[in-house]
User: Which sequence fits this backbone?
């Protein structure tokens, strides 16, 4: 008798838990109401301007400083340029990291995942990390002006990564009934 | 809409009457940064506020400040040096005195607009530091410089 009662209690408890899981909302109310544009705005991705790194590593500046100043100023200039290139890279890395964390948080609550895009995003992120580490290492070993030709890779991978993430966040927006667009009149 | 028109009119006024009278972009940057209150970061301009409103004048000064800074950050070291030579030759100070003070007190750091991104600010500070070092070198070795004659009274 007691084992049967125990089984019934456990069964009712399990049924209760399953019912709660089945009927809970996949998105919180505030998240489901926000559009991708709103969420993108809330994210406030602040990537450093891509043209600025061209300016930082402009070889004409190096040629001019070499021509016009003593060796110590040239050394100072190279140190400053290396610091700037590293700051630019780290800033980009930080922002991409923020984008990935935000994205991970958003898709965790989304029931309709798009595996192909998820894998693509993951691959872009891994590619970004590899390129970032390689260029960072090169800037220490070869100096800032030697990394100029490959800096475009960071900008390219970051743009691709952002594009895929935008697609995913946009898809997540319309995957739940609560976040469907309002009917047109 | 009316607000935007007011701000645009104040910007046009600044760009037509006040800024062209200043010798180069360094002078413009210093001037515009000086219209910003050190304690609050708000921009003030008596004449402009009188014609437009205080709000429009402040926004116009802020916009012009951002524009001048953006232009200066994207200059090559060579062109930045030309701007410095123009500024010094306008008679604001003796060249050696100017370089001494700017290297020690680094007043250029407070001329950066609040809206600028950290990398632009870092690039500007770095470029000014290098330009000052080259100016100092030219001062001590006038024969090495093709532009040194510009600095002579």
Assistant:
């Amino acid at each position: 008798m007691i084992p049967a009662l125990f089984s019934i209690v456990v069964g009712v408890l399990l049924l209760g838990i399953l019912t709660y899981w089945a009927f809970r909302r996949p998105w919180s109310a505030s998240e489901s109401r926000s559009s991708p544009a709103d969420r993108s705005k809330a994210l406030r991705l602040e990537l450093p301007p891509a043209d600025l790194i061209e300016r930082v590593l402009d070889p004409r500046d190096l040629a001019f400083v070499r021509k016009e100043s003593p060796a110590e100023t040239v050394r100072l200039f190279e140190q400053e340029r290396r610091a700037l290139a590293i700051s630019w890279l780290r800033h980009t890395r930080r922002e991409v990291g923020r984008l990935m964390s935000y994205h991970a948080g958003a898709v965790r609550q989304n029931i309709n995942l798009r595996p192909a895009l998820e894998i693509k995003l993951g691959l872009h992120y891994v590619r970004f990390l590899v390129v970032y580490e390689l260029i960072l290492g090169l800037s220490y070993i070869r100096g800032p002006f030697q990394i100029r030709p490959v800096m475009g890779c960071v900008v390219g991978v970051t743009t691709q990564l952002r594009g895929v993430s935008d697609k995913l966040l946009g898809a997540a927006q319309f995957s739940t009934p609560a976040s469907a667009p309002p009917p047109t009149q | 809409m009316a607000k935007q028109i007011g701000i645009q009119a104040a910007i046009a006024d600044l760009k037509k009457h006040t800024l062209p009278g200043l010798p180069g972009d360094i002078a413009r940057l210093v001037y515009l940064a000086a219209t910003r209150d050190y304690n609050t970061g708000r921009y003030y301009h008596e004449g402009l506020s009188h014609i437009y409103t205080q709000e429009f004048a402040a926004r116009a000064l802020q916009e012009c400040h951002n524009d001048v800074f953006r232009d200066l950050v994207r200059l090559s070291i060579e062109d930045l040096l030309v701007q410095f030579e123009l500024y010094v030759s306008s008679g604001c100070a003796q060249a050696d005195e100017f370089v001494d003070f700017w290297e020690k007190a680094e007043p250029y750091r407070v001329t950066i607009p609040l809206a600028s991104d950290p990398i632009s600010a870092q690039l500007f500070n770095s470029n000014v530091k290098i330009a000052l070092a080259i100016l100092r070198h030219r001062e001590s070795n006038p024969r090495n410089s093709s532009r040194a004659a510009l600095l002579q009274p």
